[in-house]
Amino acid sequence: MQIKCGVDIIEIARIQESIETTNGKFLERVYTKSEMEYCESKNKAKYQHYAARFAAKEAFFKAISENFNNYEITWKDIEVTNDVKGRPEVHLLNKEIPQIESIDLSLSHCKEYAIANVAILINN
Ligand SMILES: CC(C)(COP(=O)(O)OP(=O)(O)OC[C@H]1O[C@@H](n2cnc3c(N)ncnc32)[C@H](O)[C@@H]1OP(=O)(O)O)[C@@H](O)C(=O)NCCC(=O)NCCS
To answer: I want to staple 101 with a disulfide (CB 3.0 to 4.6 A). Which of 25, 39, 76, 121 is the partner?
Structure first.
């Protein structure tokens, strides 16, 4: 067993600009339907939540990059959800990596930045 971590920090303005200037293309390429529903429900604060999910996907890539860079995982293969208490979870969709035992995610965001930390427990 080993634990691999990935962390990412992002400027929220960068994500806001990508969303506002690409006529839905950036959203469609990066986010799943349920992620968009969650972020859109936050109204004016939505860009913080979009940015946090972008950071989570980047952090996930960092965490798996050493062991599983041959899986060709795309943005929408990684989905962030929240449990009933609001705690975030990250799930790998569409692709099976049997060696992954569990994944944990923590998010934080303020007016300017969002940050995500992913830890993956690998059975090898
Ligand atoms: C849940 C809580 C920690 C969020 O903290 P915050 O500073 O308001 O928010 P941040 O910007 O740092 O983080 C927001 C993210 O926290 C995550 N979060 C929300 N509820 C969570 C929970 N119960 N557990 C873990 N993470 C949680 C979410 O991912 C959220 O982002 P998202 O909505 O985009 O998914 C806070 O509201 C809370 O309940 N604090 C309790 C503190 C407390 O009891 N302290 C005393 C003992 S330590």
So the answer is: 121
